[in-house]
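Risk register update: the risk of archive-format incompatibility is retired. Evidence:
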Amino acid sequence: MIVKLHSNGETDLFMMYQKTEGITEDIHSDHKTTFNSHVVIVEQSGDSEDSWVKANLAPGAVYTQKDWNGGTLVVQVCSITPGTPDVAKVISFVDGKTTASCVPTTTGGECVDTDKRFVVNSRMINGCRWVKHRKTEARCNKRNVSSMCPVTCGTCGYEHYRDGGKPFRQGSAKRSCSWISRRPEKIKTRWCSKAGVSQICRYTCREHPSLTRSRNIFSYD
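Archived output:
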């Protein structure tokens, strides 16, 4: 299944679930890790025109495109469940006009700014207080800052179920959500129970919501 994202005056985007088997099993080895079992977003301006890969998304990953129909286009992969067939659950919306969430409204992901110090440009800064202090918009536009300070940066619409992307200070240690996600479950649980960590690592520390299985390879909400 291929899903087309279209809006008047915008270049069309296409979403598809990529798996390196069948006609794509001979994909170059350099790209197998990048694209296998990922949701791929491709841009194409018209029939027979060149197409360009815009993003390849693993579970929890988010693609955004500013100034799309008067807002920010958001595409997030909620989950990818291996099986026969694989099932990818994806949400897409224009922030500022519509909204969607990977989390059922009954459970809701918590959207808060972290009060922990985190790293920006290789320097440990004073967290979201540094973002609020001045040049807030410019600081929010720095890579992954909005994922640490979604309230200050006004990005709760799509950050509230995404891991914070910056290394942060936890006691005397510097840790990251990706580091925690790679720990065994027992250790991950211990880290997620530490004060403030689950508010940063919202995806890694979540309670997995039950998802309705679909016969489709690509389940789109």
